[in-house]
Write a structure and sequence with these properties.
- By secondary structure, the protein is mainly alpha-helical.
- The chain has 17 helices and three strands.
- It folds into three domains: 88 residues; 96 residues, Tyrosine recombinase, N-terminal domain (DNA polymerase, domain 1); 179 residues, Intergrase catalytic core (hpI Integrase, Chain A, Orthogonal Bundle), CATH 1.10.443.
- Strand 2 and strand 3 form a beta hairpin.
- Helix 3 runs antiparallel to helix 4 and helix 10 packs antiparallel against helix 12.
- The longest helix is centred in the first third of the chain and has 20 residues.
- Belongs to the 'phage' integrase family.
- InterPro entries: CB (IPR044068), DNA_brk_join_enz (IPR011010), Integrase-like_cat_sf (IPR013762), Integrase_catalytic (IPR002104), Integrase_recombinase_N (IPR010998), Tyrosine_recombinase_XerCD (IPR050090).
Length: 413
């Protein structure tokens, strides 16, 4: 396949391919105009062919942004320019249009890969992956499968190290953590193909490894005063406020994950022992939480005065008919952002502020109070206490004490 074409010819081929893929007329018109601007820039620079360096230079001079858009924010006007540069680069390298965003409820497996994909799904189910983990794993894999289809690969034995390398190049603009997850998914799938006799060679060995080790970020946490302010602004006189207050308390006081809160059933509440017993969605481990005084009264207030009368077994339901449980993909993020805004809490740029941040706050508070990591790990539902060690970074006072008096630390070891 010829990889270098004059930039005008390359742009024309991309437009023709977009038309074949039934892209919207307005979208094609916008991209065509964007390609013309890139071609004019190339003529100014005396360049005949498109290159990644030319694309970078164009974005930097005309829009003040970079092609590695995951590393920094970019102006709205630069969004289409980045997309145009990416389309030209992808088509020159791969000869296909790579669709990065797929909006469809049910994925339709390409016929030539249907058997192996179905077998791999069964393998994931037998390994008891969580529903959420399996969904994200398969979504990453489907992007690779779509790429194979675009490259006219008709059998898994036609996959070559070169095709794998080209695909890895196509995901290079993504965030480092996303790339790591994609490579892991790809490596596991290709190993599955080899071990189950679908391929003659172990292609997982051709998937490159990241040279840069990913260090987990320090978790985002809130000051206790901020959590109190957020809870105080909730209108507990309304059904919506009663429900949201109970949800936020379950996260802030007990550290229950959002997915487990959505899955909470009325039968999980044991009022005689004042406990909540659930099987965690993520770890599949059964965990028991105490129904603290304020948590218990918040739940009672919601169940008696706010929860609609319905046959749904879940505790938390939507307040508008039809009264159903929260959707499969609902992360309840809108609940916390609503009350952060009402409380006038300023969220620094780049700080995560979803429900998970309340779990982080609980862990950090317990750490500051001197609770052992093993206890905190059990409360948060971590299968390995190593997952909890990241919270050591949030206990700044504890770290300062260690820095000031290391001998004291070793004596107490």
């Amino acid at each position: 396949m010829e990889t270098r074409k004059p930039i005008e010819e390359l742009a024309a081929k991309v437009v023709k391919e977009l038309e074949k893929l039934n892209y919207a007329y307005n979208t094609i018109c916008g991209l065509r105009a964007s390609f013309k601007r890139i071609c004019a820039f190339a003529r100014e620079k005396g360049e005949i062919y498109f290159s990644e360096n030319l694309g970078r230079e164009y974005l930097k001079e005309r829009y003040g942004c970079i092609i590695d858009y995951c590393q920094e924010s970019f102006p709205k006007k630069g969004k289409q320019a980045i997309r145009s540069v990416r389309l030209l680069g992808d088509y020159q390298l791969h000869g296909v249009i790579i669709r990065r965003i797929v909006k469809r409820k049910g994925y339709v497996k390409p016929p030539q890969f249907e058997e192996v994909l179905t077998a791999y799904e069964k393998e994931c189910e037998s390994n008891q992956y969580s529903q959420r983990g399996m969904r994200t794993r398969l979504q990453r894999l489907f992007f690779f499968v779509d790429y194979l289809s675009l490259r006219k690969v008709m059998d898994v034995n036609e996959i070559t190290p070169g095709i794998i390398s080209d695909y890895v190049i196509s995901i290079s603009p993504k965030h480092e953590k996303s790339i790591s997850s994609i490579l892991t998914t790809l490596r596991v799938f290709l190993r599955f193909l080899y071990l189950n006799g679908y391929t003659e060679k172990d292609l997982s060995l051709s998937v490159p490894k990241q040279n840069k080790y990913h260090y987990p970020k320090v978790p985002s946490t809130w000051e206790q005063e901020e959590v109190k302010r957020m809870l105080d602004v909730i209108d507990r006189g309304s059904p919506l406020g009663k429900r949201d207050y109970a949800i936020l308390l379950l996260v802030a006081k007990l550290g229950i994950r959002a997915g487990d809160i959505k899955a909470l059933k009325l039968t999980d509440l044991n009022w005689d022992t004042k406990t909540i017993t659930i099987k965690q969605e993520k770890t599949k481990v059964e965990t028991t939480y105490p129904i603290l005084h304020d948590v218990g009264w918040a739940l009672i207030d919601y169940l008696q005065n706010a929860r609609p009368v319905c046959d749904v077994p879940y505790i938390f339901v939507r307040l508008n008919a039809p009264f159903k449980e929260f959707g499969e993909n609902a992360n309840l993020h809108n609940i916390i952002t609503k009350y952060i805004r009402l409380a006038g809490i300023i969220v620094p740029r780049g700080k995560r502020h979803g429900l998970h941040s309340l779990r982080h706050t609980l862990a950090s508070t317990l750490l500051e109070q001197g609770e052992p990591l093993a206890v905190i790990s059990e409360i948060l539902g971590h299968m390995d206490s190593k997952s909890t060690t990241v919270y050591l970074h949030t206990d700044l006072n504890g770290l300062r004490a260690c820095a000031l008096d290391p001998e004291e630390v070793f004596r107490n070891d």
